[in-house]
Every structure is written in C-alpha cells, then in structure tokens.
Model the fold of this input.
Amino acid sequence: MPNPHRGEIEACLDGKSFRLCLTLGSLAELEHTFGHDDMLSLAERFQSGRLSALDAQRLIGAGLRGAGHEILDEAVGRMQAEGGVAGFVDIVARLLGATFGGPAAIVSAAAVTALTQAASSAPAEGRASATPFLGPR
Done:
C-alpha cells in the first residue's frame, strides 16, 4: 500500500501493480534531464498542462526508480497502462500531485479530458492523428 505522506502512488502497468515515488534523487535526475536548475522550475514546467509522451515516459521511469525498481525509460515506453494513453496521463498527474503536495490537477483535468477524447476518436491503426498529444489550443 502506497504511503501518500511520502509522496507514493500505486499504478498498474503491464497488468502488475507498481509503487512510484519521486524522491529527491529522482527529482534531481528529472532536473538534469529537462535542463532545469531547481524543483520550482521543474514543477512550473508541468503546471503548464502540456505533456509529451517522452515527458510521461521519463516521469514514470523516475517514479519507478525512486520507489526502488531498476528500470530504464526505454522499458517504460514499452509498457501498457490501464486506459491506454489517458492511463499514463493519470499516473503522471497523481505522481506529480503526490510529490508537490498539490492537487493531482497539476496536469489539468481539462488536458486529461482533451487527451481522452482524442484517444477515443483516434483514426484507424497505422494512420496518424492530426490531434496533438495534449495541451491547450
């Protein structure tokens, strides 16, 4: 069972339950990866409501490593989440909310809704969608 007082969440990836936590070490890793000098600017990056697939992959990987799992970001990119892409966005929102102490709406609810709608109206397999991954228009 995750401890919310330590910023832990539980997530289902590839049909298995995983604990995720952004520790001080994993936050330092993300600062370096995203080119930020401090945690505040890192948090501000995600408050914008825009999230790339690579951002989600890196955040989930850092959260898994912070909780003690030895996994590379590339392996995270091959995982499946309940609810598809919207499931990954939910994991990221909950992880950021647990870490920074704010509501899970750091990745805005409107952005999650937009993503879910885009995913449900995605074109047939093999064709690209004109809808951007996430964010305000």
About this structure: Residues 85-100 form the longest helix (16 residues).
